[in-house]
Automatic annotation (TrEMBL):
GO molecular function, one term: hydrolase activity
Alphabetically ordered keywords of this record: Glycoprotein, Hydrolase, Lipid degradation, Lipid metabolism, Signal
Pfam families: Abhydro_lipase
GO biological process, one term: lipid catabolic process
Family: Belongs to the AB hydrolase superfamily. Lipase family.
Keyword Magnesium attached: no
InterPro entries: AB_hydrolase_fold, AB_hydrolase_lipase
UniProt cross-references to SUPFAM superfamilies, sorted A to Z: alpha/beta-Hydrolases (SSF53474)
Protein name: Partial AB-hydrolase lipase domain-containing protein
Superkingdom in the source lineage: Eukaryota
Source species taxonomy: Eukaryota, Viridiplantae, Streptophyta, Embryophyta, Tracheophyta
Length: 243
């Protein structure tokens, strides 16, 4: 049984490593209109390495949750086309990434194919969240990133603290209700929040990509075994949780 567990865990790690989101790459367009994937620059943070290099304005914002986590939220206030380079009274759209990734997952394709850039070019005020513990949201008001207490949180804290803090911040900044787009874990977060009657008064609409609510109907045996037995090990491997 130990051998089987090792094989499954190894397969899971290789599967996740094979996805582009874990390669920290940025998509650009070459002269043929095809996407190229150069290594992301580590200089200048999220805005300079992922957004401004593609010709878009970008703002880095910090949001502090009630339990002290400091979240990085990136704003793309306008598109890069001539007709869309006005701030005006644009509708805000908040994009919440899934598990094992961060806000960069919305920008891995060329601008014409990336949802965040497309929304900006079509007149929306785009906000990208980086959830606690990800590369751009490692801060805390009193805990160090390597402190085991820093990692003492679960989905409940994402729902109770991260999402409400981010919603309130964007709502306060724009004065408008938000359009929300969530992927995978992001969908679970907003559904859980709405089930508690949180955030509803600040929501204009919700779009759920690959929504997740329950695992009870999962038909893949491999997926069930991974979810039941190895999710903590895989998370520790990629996010470097302290022992």
């Amino acid at each position: 049984m130990k051998l089987v567990n090792t094989i499954i865990l190894t397969y899971t790690i290789l599967l996740i490593l094979s996805t582009p989101n874990f390669l920290s790459l940025k998509a650009q367009e070459n002269g043929t209109g095809m996407a190229t994937m150069p290594v992301q620059s580590s200089e200048g943070g999220f805005c300079k390495s992922m957004v401004e290099t593609n010709g878009y304005e970008c703002e880095d914002h910090s949001v502090t949750t009630k339990d002290g986590y400091i979240l990085n939220v990136v704003r793309i206030p306008m598109g890069r086309c001539r007709d869309c380079r006005t701030r005006g009274n644009k509708s805000p759209v908040l994009l919440q990434h899934g598990v094992f990734v961060d806000g960069r997952s919305w920008l891995l394709l060329p601008p014409k194919q990336s949802l965040a850039f497309n929304l900006a070019d079509n007149g929306y005020d785009v906000w990208l969240v980086n959830s606690r513990g990800t590369e751009y949201s490692e801060g805390h008001t009193s805990l160090n990133f390597d402190d085991p207490a820093y990692w003492n949180w679960s989905l409940d804290e994402l729902v109770a603290y991260d999402l409400p803090a981010t919603f309130q911040y964007v709502y306060d900044q724009t004065g408008q209700k938000l359009h929300f787009v969530g992927h995978s874990l992001g969908t679970l977060m907003v559904m859980a929040a709405m089930s508690r009657d949180q955030l509803v008064n600040m929501l204009e609409s919700v779009a759920l990509l690959c929504p997740v609510a329950y695992m009870g109907h999962t038909t893949s045996l491999l997926s069930r075994v991974i979810a039941d037995n190895f999710i903590a090990e895989v998370t520790s491997f990629f996010l470097c949780y302290p022992n």
